[in-house]
């Protein structure tokens, strides 16, 4: 059609993360390691991974730096830290600041779960899950905010991406293996992400939450077995599959890229429609 402009500016590079700097908490295994791999292969120049297990961090670091698809000079850096402790988050921020003056992407992913029936859910375990899944997310963002806003603009915002769960969108597991603390913490994480989106948005930092369903991770393995295994879960999922590593990595790369810069305060279910199917008759 004459006179209609269909040109999209630099669209071929809309998912390119070349030169970006990212921090991934809980980055030594599971979602964190998968996302760190995706970010590195999408062009990030530096990926800082952290978990409280120093040996696991070192093993993950070696695997990431052996990836053949990295940009020249791109590297992963390990900073072991216990994200449940605010003092450790201060140390993490200080260590990261030693080798970069800014951060473009924070994947706040460190978390824990616990299953027990209603009568046996203990206060200490409830507090531990809430502290790591909610409080530590807030303080991770707070401590890294000066680095996140350093190069951030409204046109090219920095990203905070919070790992929540579909259990924060509906009922979690009940009965003998109930996840009261985990489900409540993930609902809180979604709400926290929305609050951060409003408060940090004017500073050039946008915040979104991802809400995974069942994926083949160490954290999920016990619950998957209790649900009848992956084959049973496939039959309960509308698209008849369970999540794979590239699904999570792909979503986080999208949320880190120019393609998502007008997405702020969203909670995105990545579960193949599982949560929708749970309520069917």
From TrEMBL:
<feature type="domain" description="Ketoreductase">
    <location>
        <begin position="20"/>
        <end position="213"/>
    </location>
</feature>
<dbReference type="Pfam" id="PF13561">
    <property type="entry name" value="adh_short_C2"/>
</dbReference>
<dbReference type="InterPro" id="IPR057326">
    <property type="entry name" value="KR_dom"/>
</dbReference>
<protein>
    <recommendedName>
        <fullName>Ketoreductase domain-containing protein</fullName>
    </recommendedName>
</protein>
<keyword id="KW-0560">Oxidoreductase</keyword>
<dbReference type="InterPro" id="IPR002347">
    <property type="entry name" value="SDR_fam"/>
</dbReference>
<comment type="similarity">
    <text>Belongs to the short-chain dehydrogenases/reductases (SDR) family.</text>
</comment>
<keyword id="KW-0521">NADP</keyword>
<dbReference type="InterPro" id="IPR036291">
    <property type="entry name" value="NAD(P)-bd_dom_sf"/>
</dbReference>
<dbReference type="InterPro" id="IPR052178">
    <property type="entry name" value="Sec_Metab_Biosynth_SDR"/>
</dbReference>
């Amino acid at each position: 059609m004459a006179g209609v402009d269909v040109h999209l500016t630099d669209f071929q590079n809309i998912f390119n993360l070349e030169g970006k700097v990212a921090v991934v908490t809980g980055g030594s295994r599971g979602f964190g390691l998968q996302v760190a791999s995706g970010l590195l292969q999408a062009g990030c120049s530096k990926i800082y991974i952290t978990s409280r297990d120093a040996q696991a961090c070192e093993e993950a670091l070696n695997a990431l730096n052996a990836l053949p698809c990295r940009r020249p000079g791109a590297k992963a850096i390990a900073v072991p830290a216990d994200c449940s402790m605010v003092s450790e988050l201060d140390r993490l921020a200080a260590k990261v600041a030693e080798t970069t003056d800014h951060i473009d992407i924070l994947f706040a992913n460190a978390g824990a779960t616990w299953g027990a029936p209603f009568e046996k859910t203990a206060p200490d375990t409830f507090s531990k899950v809430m502290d790591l899944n909610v409080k530590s997310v807030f303080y991770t963002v707070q401590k890294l905010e000066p680095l996140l806003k350093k190069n951030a603009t409204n046109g090219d915002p920095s990203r905070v991406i919070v790992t929540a769960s579909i259990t924060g969108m509906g009922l979690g597991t009940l009965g003998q293996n109930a996840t009261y603390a985990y489900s409540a913490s993930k609902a809180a994480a979604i709400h926290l992400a929305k609050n951060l989106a409003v408060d940090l948005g004017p500073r050039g930092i946008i915040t979104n939450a991802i809400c995974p369903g069942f994926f083949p991770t160490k954290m999920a393995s016990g619950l998957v077995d209790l649900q009848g295994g992956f084959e049973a879960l496939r039959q309960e999922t509308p698209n008849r599959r369970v999540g794979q590593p590239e699904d999570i990595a792909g979503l986080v790369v999208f949320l880190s890229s120019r393609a998502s810069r007008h997405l702020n305060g969203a909670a995105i279910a990545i579960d193949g429609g599982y949560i929708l199917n749970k309520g069917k008759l």
